Batch of 2 targets.
Target 1
Amino acid sequence: MKAPHFTIKNKFQKQDTLYRDLLTPEILSDICLKTTGRPDYTYEFDDTGYNIGRLVELEHQGKKNFISISETDIRSRNSSFQSLPSALARYILEENPNKEIFFYFHPSISGNYETPYFIFMYRLMKTAKIGFLNEAEYLEQPISPFITAEDIIANKDRIRSTNRGNRSTYVTRGQNNELQVYGKTYGANKYETTILCLALSEVAHSKVQLFQIGEGGLTELPQKAKEAIESLGVVKIYASNRTIEKIDFEENNSLRSVEYVYKLLETLGDKKCAFCGCEIPQIIDGAHIWPVAEIKKDETLSQDEKLACALDGANGLWLCQNHHKLLDSNILRVNEAGEVQYKSEIGGIHLIFLKYITRQTQLQESVLSDRFINYIQKRNRNLRESLYSTVG
Ligand SMILES: [Zn+2]
């Protein structure tokens, strides 16, 4: 019977030394044994096409295996996974239905590759149907895939709270229960965004929207990654685009802006009503402090400056729909010290209800930035404080 046949991608064979250092005959034999049950193999190099990273393909008896090999020197979080999305995209777009994809820990791996973040990424990978060929030799705990989207969101939050420095990708739900991913599409974060979308495609029961958060000119994921994500039929990809936001700003007095929501997520963290603590994402809005309609009337600002105010993460709070409405109706007000106040003329059962649902009577210190207070001052210009009483 014909021996399994490797196609070795360009990362491993640009120079002969690379091949000898990174991909020894022992490693190839081990991979071959673990995927096909036999250790002998033939191989060829494939240096066509663009750089697709640390990938080998192994064909045997009509089945095609894709094997992504780990980095050896683990230094930074996301760069350790940079080869994986292109391998995964190649696998997903492969037409042969008899196919499988694996991840292989390189025997020379060094550094801390078992941090909570790495474990989270391994779990996403397993959820995205990537098999691990040698996890038992390298990890203390076996990796379990995520079962639900909620499971992914909860774990992502946990990682974020232990590492507030790297806030890249957010998963939340929109008003119609749709899963929403706000993902950066540049730098190392694009790998996380891609793997996250592929994992969500396996477990989501509802449609998923991916809002691509760019920087400068680069606003989209690599073409192959987009094709792979869309081919699974679950995730719809949207660009976040200043031109569209600008048109929306000029034509409407309420701004349903991807960029604004993303900036609120960055500034305030996950959706949680600032007045009552409600965390049901479907009913939490991004509420402008200085309202869009008022910004537009300001004659001292240029059009671009107005848009910047409308999209500023400091110009907003997460509020549940009740509290958003109460704020916009000026029944509730926030003063410059961050105290929540109610219109003194409200009385009786309405006041009892207001006090009952408004559990947070003082905004957190972390919210009260100079810019935030500046927006409060603009908002309150026409609301006399003497007409209000403090809720607490
Ligand atoms: Zn609320």
Target 2
Amino acid sequence: MKVLIVFYSTYGHVYKMAQAVAEGVKTVAGAEVEIRRVPETLPQEVLEKMGAVDAQKAFSQIPECTVDELTEADAVIFGTPTRFGNMCGQMRQFLDATGQLWANGSLVGKVGSVFTSTATQHGGQESTILTFHVTLLHQGFVVVGLPYTFQGQMRMDEITGGSPYGASTIAGGDGSRLPSENELEAARFQGKHVAGIAAKLASV
Ligand SMILES: Cc1cc2nc3c(=O)[nH]c(=O)nc-3n(C[C@H](O)[C@H](O)[C@H](O)COP(=O)(O)O)c2cc1C
């Protein structure tokens, strides 16, 4: 049973969450996990102005995803930073290249799930994931979130990401906040949860 984690990250927050999701997947017997990044679409000059060049070196060794790899997975877990409350353009462009898969029904019945990162607490954590789900539903994915059995999303003693829609982290206005242990735990939980459901579906 194969789980593919497909992410985009400018400064590394989503990448850190992706690594935690992969840890969660690996706890499920028989689950194989691969991490892939979607291609960058911004010109180098813009990335330099954004201060992203050095940050992206930390995950430049991760292979770029091809749309065909989606067809080989039993479950796909997508990670995207928010852009104005929606997924980032890089992810949108990648998904917009899956028209042929849609036409062939290639992704129907696979498990799909989403995690995210925002700068601010209420800057689009939930809307980014929920609007992403619309694309997954068009493609026929069985959408899976982060159930409340992950009790860490009930916490009131610290600022934290995480909702029933999926794991999330809050990067801070200047990006200096790293994913907290609670947010990483949410990501691990989501990975394990998705892999567990995919394993059950694969056995039917
Ligand atoms: C064009 C643009 C739009 C953004 N829009 C939002 C937003 O609507 N809400 C928010 O909280 N953060 C917003 N951000 C901040 C990013 O979501 C933040 O940098 C990201 O979550 C960090 O994750 P990363 O390190 O994986 O790139 C925006 C950033 C950019 C560049």
